[in-house]
Batch of 3 targets.
Target 1
Amino acid sequence: MCGIVAYVGERDASEVLIEGLRRLEYRGYDSAGIAVQSGSRLELRKRQGKLSNLTLALRENPVQGNLGIGHTRWATHGRPSDLNAHPHTDCREQIAVIHNGIIENYLLLRRELEAQGHTFRSQTDSEVIAHLVEKYFTGDLSAAVYRAVGELQGAYAIVVIAAGTEQVVAVRTVSPLVVGLGEGENFLASDVPALLPYTRRVIFLADGQVAVLDRHQVRITNLRGRPVEVKPSTVDWNPVMAEKGGFDHFMLKEIYEQPQVIQQTLGGRLIDQSGDVDLGLGLDFSQVQRVHLVACGSAFYASCVGKYVLERFARLPVEVDLASEYRYRDPVVPEGTLAVAVSQSGETIDTLEALREARRRGAKTLGLVNVKGSSITREVDDTLYLHAGPEIGVASTKAYTGMLCALVLLGLHLGRQRGTIDQKQASWLIAELRRLSGLVQQVLDHAEAVNELGRRFQNARDFLFLGRGINFPTALEGALKLKEISYIHAEAYATGEMKHGPIALIDANMPVVMVATESAVYDKVISNLQEVKAREGIVLALVSEGDTRAAALADAVIQVPRVSELLSPIVNVVPLQLLAYDIAKRRGLDVDQPRNLAKAVTVE
Ligand code: G6P
C-alpha cells in the first residue's frame, strides 16, 4: 500500500515528487525516496522513517531534473531502512524502480539473477524488478518493462525510469495507479490527492494496463504492448478538501465533517412523500434473496451494523464476513446472492478479492465505496458512492458514518421494493434521516464533555467497550479507534456476553465504556451495568439525553440526542471517535499516522 508518484515535464521534479508524497504519506511511512534524472545520470535520495527525513536530506543535498519517481513505503519484505527504501536500482544505477504490492516469485528470480551476475543491495522483493529490466534493456525502456513483467508473479504497481530515457513506464496489476494529464507535463500516482495541485484530468489504469508517459503524451497499452483505448475522467475533489482546514489533525477535521458527510451521502436520494429512496443505480435487485457483506477494518464494523439494518428493513438473510476470511472459506453463494463490498478506498485487496470470489460463484455485486474510479468500483455491477470526500486520517471516521448512511439507504430501498416497509414507516424513517446531520452536530458541539473524560482516563492501560444489538458494532468500532491511535489495549464485547468471560477482567482499574442509549434492550443493559459496578468497574456510559437510570449508576456519562434505535449507531460512534482522538492527542501520539498502520491496504 505504498505511495507512488512520478513526474515528467518542465518543473523541478523533486518538488513535485515531495509534494505528491506529502499527500500520500498516509499510505505508508516506514521510509521514503526519490530518483530524479539529472543529465545522463539518476540521482537517488532515500531515508528511513517519515517523509520529513527525506526532505531534510534533500535540503542538504538537492537534486536537479525534470523527470523522476518517488515512493513512500509500508514495509512488507525487508525491514524499514535506508537501504530497503525505494527507489531500487539495477547494478549500474541506470534504472530505478518503485513498487507497491508483492512479487510472489521474487526469491526464485533473485537467485536466477544473482547466478547471472547481478548484485543485490536490499532485502526487498522490489529490487528484482530493477535487475530484470536491466537484463532486457537495450535502449527501449517500455520494451524491457514488457519483458520483465512477463516474469513477475503477484499483485503490484510498478514505475520504472532509466538514465537518458525521457519516459516513465508504469504497470498496474491489482495495485492502483492513476495518470494525471497536464500540458507539456504528465503525472502519475497511486492516489488522486497527489495529483490535485496540478490537474483534475486523470486516467485510472485498469488491471493489466501499462502507461508510457513522456512530457507530451501518455500511451496506454496492455501487458504485451498493444494500445488500449481509454477515456480520461475528471475528478471533482479540490485540493483544499484534502487539506487540514485549520484542525490540528486530519482525523479531527474528518470527525467534524460528519454532519456534512451525512447530508452528502443522503442528499438527493430521499423522496419524502413516497417514502422511497433513489439510489440512482441500474442494478436490478428484484431477484435478490440474500446479501453477503464483505469488508475489512472499520468497513467491516459498518457492515455489522448493515446486517441489522438490512435484515430489519428488507427481511433478507444477511451474512457479514471479514473479506480475508470470506475469500478462503469456500463460501456458499446460492443463486440470488447480492455481494456488497464495503470500502472507503475501494482498493483494499482482501475486499477486492472477496468480491471477485463472490462474482465467480455467481453473485451480483455492488460496491459501497468512497473513492471514485477505484478498483472495486470498476469491477462491480454497480456502485453506491458514499460522497464522504477524501479521507486522509488513517483511522476511518467520516467514511464510517458515510457507510452507515449508505447501508441504511440500501436497506430502505430493498425494503420498499420488497414491500417489507410500508410508506408510513418509510416516510417516518426518512424524517429521522433528515434529522441525523443536526444530531451529530449537537454531539460535536458538546465535545468538551468527552475531552474531560479523555483527561481522566488518558493513562488507563486497558479499556473494555460494551454494546448490544445494533450498537455492538459501535463498541467494536470505538475500541478499534482507541487501539489504532492511542495504542491502549481495548477490547469490545457484546454486553450480554460479558458475563461469559470479560467480567473476569473487571476491577477498579478497568474503564468500561458502555453504550447504554435508549433501545429495546435498555433494561438488560442496565442490569449489565449493575454487574460491572458490583465488581468495582469504572463505567463510562453513553446515554440518551435526559436518561436518569444509567446515569445514576455510571461513574461518568456522555449524553447523546435521542434518535431511532436503528439510526443510533451513526450518532453513538461520534463521542467514541472523539474520546479516542482526545486520548491519543494527550499522549502526544501521531494521530493521523499511527505506527504500523496504513490507510489503504493493497497487500494481502
Ligand atoms: C485499513 C485502514 C482502516 C480501514 C481498513 C479498510 O486497515 O487503516 O481504517 O477501515 O483499511 O479500508 P477500506 O478502504 O477498504 O474501507
Target 2
Amino acid sequence: MTKPPENDRNTFSKDSVEGMMPMLICGPCSAESESQLMTTASGLSALLRLDYFRAGIWKPRTRPGDFEGVGINGLRWMQKVKDNFGFRLMVEVASPEHVEAILQYGVDAVWIGARTVVNPFSVQELAEALRGTKLPVFIKNPVTPDLHLWIGAIERFLKAEAGTLSAIHRGFHYFARSPYRNAPMWEIAIELKRLMPELPVITDISHISGRRSLLHEIAQKALDLGTDGLMIESHYDPSTAKTDAAQQITPAELLKMVNKLHVRKRPEGNDFDIVLERLRTEIDKLDGELLHLLARRMEIIDEIGQHKKAHNLSILQLKRWQHIMDDRSAIGLHLGLDKNFLVELLELVHKTSIERQENIFRKE
Ligand code: PEP
Ligand code: MN
C-alpha cells in the first residue's frame, strides 16, 4: 500500500481518524436468521467503523419461490444488532407497507432497489410514504442504463422533501457478456455527479462485481473516481448465504480487502477522465453489437447450409464469394477501413462459414 500523506486516513479499520474516509455500508445481502445477523455484525463491529449496517428484509427475486426475505422478524433481529453493536441500520424498501414497518423498528435509513427505481409509480408511492420522515434515502441506479430514470427517481424524493438523499451506483444490465454481474458504465455515475455535484454517490461494489474476486478492483476504481462511499455485502459464512453467495465476503476478508485499497484525497472537481470512460463504454457497446451481428450471420450461414444440403448444391459457390469480396471491400474502403484488414476479415469470416456448412453436410 502506498504511504498516504501525513494525517490522511488511509484505512477503514476501527482505529482510523474520523472524517477522512468515504462512507462504508456493510452487512449481508439478506437477513436470514437472528444468529446470522448477530454473528456477521459482531465480526464487522470488531474490525471496522461502519456508517451503516445493511440487510435486505424483503428480497426482490427474479422468480417466485426463490428466497423472498424473512420480513418483519428480520426487523426485530436488526433492532438487536443496533442495541448490541450500536450500528445505524439500513434496509431496502419497495412499498409503502415496507416504509410503515421499518418506521416501527428504528431503522435509520433506507435504500431503494434497482428493480424499484425503474418504475416511476413505485418510486412516487415511496416518496409519498417517506415524506416528512427525515429518513436518509439512498437511491440505487435503475437496472437499465438510463441516467434520466435515475435522476427522475432522485427528483421525486427531492420534491417529497424526504431526508438526505444519496445515490448508489450498482451497475447496469447490459446485453453483452462482461466480467461483471452488472456493467459499471462508470461514465453514467460520473455524469450524475456532474449534474448533481452535491449528491453523494456511493458505489455498491458487490452488485457490480457479482463475485468476490472482483471486489478489490472495483472498489479501487470507485475510489480513484472519487466515490463518496462503498456498499459491500458481508456474511459470516458466505457459502451458506441464501442470496448472492458468490459476492459476499466474511468480515475478516472485508477488512483485508479494504486495507489494501489506496484511499486518495478525493478530487475537488471532475478531474477524472470522463472522455476516456465514455469512449470505452461506446467501444464495449459496439463490440457487443459486432458479436451479435456475427452470431446472427452465422445462424443464416447455417440455414443456407441446410438448404444447400437439401437441394444437393455445392458449398463453395465461387461467383457468390467473388461478389462478396468485391462488394464488401468497396464498401469498407469507402468507410475508411484498411484494405489488408478487410481482406483478412472477410477471408476469416468466409473460411469459418464454409467450415460450419461442411459440418452440416457431414451430419446425417
Ligand atoms: C441488494 O442490495 O441486496 C439488492 C437487491 O440490490 P439491487 O437492488 O442493486 O439489485
Ligand atoms: Mn444482494
Target 3
Amino acid sequence: MKITYKTHFARDIKAELNGYVVILAGWVHIKRDLGGKKFLILRDKTGTVQLILTKGKTPQHIIEIFNKLTRESVIKVKGVVKASAKAPRGVEIEPLEIEVLSLAKTPLPVDVTGKVHADIDTRLNNRVLDLRRKENQAIFRIQDTTLKAIREKLRELGFIEVLTPKIIASATEGGAQLFPVLYFGREAFLAQSPQLYKELLASAFERVFEIGPAFRAEESDTPYHLSEFISVDIEAAFMNYLDVMNVLEEVIYHVLMKIRKENMEDLKILKYEEHFPKMRRPIKKITYNEAINILQEHKYPIEKGEDLSTPALRKLGEILDEEFYFVIDWPTSTRPFYTMPKRDNEERTESFDFVYKWLEIASGSTRIHERSLLEKQLIRQGLDPKNFEYFLKWFNWGMPPHAGWGLGLSRLMLILTGAKNVREVVLFPRDKKRLIP
Ligand code: AMO
C-alpha cells in the first residue's frame, strides 16, 4: 500500500538499493556531529538507519535543519541510498530533503536509546517514551504473536471468540477484591472475571473464549498482581477439567512454537533466547495432596487444607524439576462456589492450577451444572442464592456439563519474555498506586 509519508521502512534500506531515492519517516534516535561529517540515526518501528551529512556536499539548509534537531523529533527524509562498508548494516542515506514534522523538547524525561538506566517508576511515569525502546518493542511484538497464536489454536479447536459485559451485578471470585461502580444509583461492580457469562454462553455455543479485561481491587503490591489485567478465558460444554487441561497444553505449546518461529530476533533483543521455556509433554499433573506430601517430606512447613503460597510453589517447582506442571484436585474450601466437587470425595474438587516453575499462570475446573448443587455450594460459602438468581435461572433450561479455565496474559508474558514484573509487560499498568498514564 502506498502512503504519503514514506516509501520504505528503515529495515528495507539495504546495500542493494544503492543509488535509489527513498523517503523515510521516523524519530531522531541519535545525532553525532564530527564537524566535517554529521550522522543522524533515524528510527522507525522496524529499526534504525544512518543518515550521513558531509560538509561541502550536503546542501547548507539541510545542515542547518540537522543542527536544530533534537532527539525524538519526528522527521521525514528524502535521500539517496549509498552502500558503504563503514556504515551500520553496510548502508546509509545521503539526505536531499529533511522535513521536521514535530520538534521534541529537551531534555527527554527518559532515555530511549537504552544507554541511561532508569528505574521502573520513572519509566512507567514516562511510559510512551519508554515504549519506544527496542526492548519494549520486542515485548509487545511477542505479545502480538501470543494473542494471535492463542486465537488461532482455540479457533482450530472449535471455540468462538465472545465478549461479555464488564459491568456486572455480583462477585464471582470472592467478594473482597471487587471494585464497586455507581450504576445509575444502583450498586454494580467491575467484572473480576467473565466466569458466569462464559458458563452461560457454553450452554448456547458449546465452546467459547474471551480475551478481555478483568478487574480486581488488589491490595497486595507484588510483581504478579495488577488491578486490571487481561484474562484469557475459555469455557467448553461436554468437557471436564482433564479435557480443558489438554486444551490449555495445546494452546501454550502452540504459543511457544509460534514465538520461536516468528520472534527469534525479539528474544535476542531481550537476551532470552536460551532461557525461553521448553515444554515437556504431556505436562505433569500432581494432586494437591501429593504436593503437600512432597513439601512435608522436604521439611517445608505446610498443612493439608492450606493454599500453596508463592514460597511453597517455589519449593515445589524446585523439587519437581519441571518447567510446567498442573496441581489438581484442590480442597473445596480453597475454590470458588461454581467448582465441581469430586464424585468420590466432596472435600476435593475437579480443579487445577497451571504453574510455570512457581508462578500460577492459569486456573480452571469442571463446573457444577446442577442448580441444586450450585445453591448448596453458594450457601456453604456464605453467599445468598437470591443474589445469583440472574445466573441460576438458566440452569433450569438445559445446562450441559462444562469446564473451563482463565489465564493471566501478563503472567504468561513474564515467562515468554523473561520480564520480572507484570508492569513491564502491560502497556499502561494499573495498580493500587498507579492510575496514570
Ligand atoms: P483466578 O482468580 O485464578 O481464576 O484467575 C485466573 C488467572 O488470572 C491471573 N490473575 C491475575 N493476573 C494479574 N493480576 C491479578 N490481580 C490477577 N489475578 C488473577 C492469574 C490466574 O491464574 N474464573 C477463574 C478461572 C476459571 O476457572 O475459568 C478465575 O478467575 O494468572
